[in-house]
Amino acid sequence: MNAKNRIPLYLALAALGLMLAAGHLTMETALPTQAVMTLPSREGYTLTAGELPPTGERLSFSRETLYQGNLLYVSPQNPLPADYPAQQARDVRSLVGLYIPAAAHVSLSEETIYALCDLTGQNPLLSTWIMAGMRSPGEQAALQKAAFSAYQSTLPVVEALRKATQEIPDSGGSEHQLATCFDLRLDGLQDWSYADPMARTADGRWLLEHGWRYGFIRRYPPEKAALTGIDNEALHWRYVGRLHALMLHAADWCLEEYVQALHAYGALRLQTPEGAEIWALCQPMEEDVSFDIPPDASCEVSADNLGWAVCVFQRDQSSF
Ligand SMILES: [Zn+2]
């Protein structure tokens, strides 16, 4: 482990530029160091902010590659760009039959489908259905129109339109354009003593406890509604990859908290109880973004659709 604690280059250069402009420094002056902070995390994990991994190989990634990543942040207030290159999706049933309990015509990315196969290999989810996956702009518009028609039968037109667009965002603002998101239907014995619908079945409780191990996050946890802005998607899940899901689990963050921490600190390092070491790095988005990756690590990159690019990697082979 490199003991040097360095500020991210772009922050250092920006700070240096400001100081030079103010006439406070010459170019020979050493860069300031950023304090390394330990952030709150679940028991057994150590989460550190502001530290950078040892120097490695500089790898560049194009905007197109970054926009195929698994960490795009999409909301009604933050839609995908008009030139967004649509993700590749496959019909789940035509790829793996009923190995995954998906309704007909549910489409997801191959990576998401294979992660679901891993998960159902461990727990077949016999009383659960995946009801909706990726939606085309036309399908999203049709869904919104159907909701409007339903509300219009009982509400004034303006109110019906407001409710329909609030519940079913315009195509650009819905996560269902991503090939990594899906909605669940939980069948079987329901324990109504749980206020949270996700916790009412054994499958639901198992997913809440173990979904992260397979790369899945519950995207809009009811207890985080003030942060996500969404309180009517209790059964909406998303694949973000095992390393990001582990970070979110260890810190007990929703996606909003995770990207905010990445923007604020530039680098996060997580050590798991099993001894695995995971790094997440963040830089402003440009046409090409490059990250310094240690030679022993393979990384996953993604734009976050908020003006930043994120890279995550594990430095060792420990399982978690
Ligand atoms: Zn959904």
Description:
This protein has 320 residues and is of the alpha+beta class. It has two domains: 1-71 and 243-320, 2-Layer Sandwich (Phosphorylase Kinase, domain 1), CATH 3.30.200; 82-135 and 174-239, 2-Layer Sandwich (Muramoyl-pentapeptide Carboxypeptidase, domain 2). 30% of the residues lie in helices and 21% in strands. Strands 1-2-10-11-14-13 form a six-stranded antiparallel beta sheet. The chain has a four-stranded antiparallel beta sheet with strand order 6-7-9-8. Helix 5 runs antiparallel to helix 6. The longest helix is centred in the middle third of the chain and has 16 residues, at 137-152. It is globular, with a radius of gyration of 21 Å. The chain starts with 8 loop residues before the first helix and ends in a 6-residue tail after the last strand. Bound molecules: zinc ion. Zinc ion (ZN) is lined by residues 176, 183, 233, 236. Zinc ion (ZN) binds at residues 176, 183, 233, 236.
Strand content range: 15-25%
How many structural domains in the coordinates? 2
Class based on secondary structure composition and strand pairing: alpha+beta
User: Number of DSSP helices?
Assistant: 10
Report the radius of gyration as a whole number of Å: 21 Å
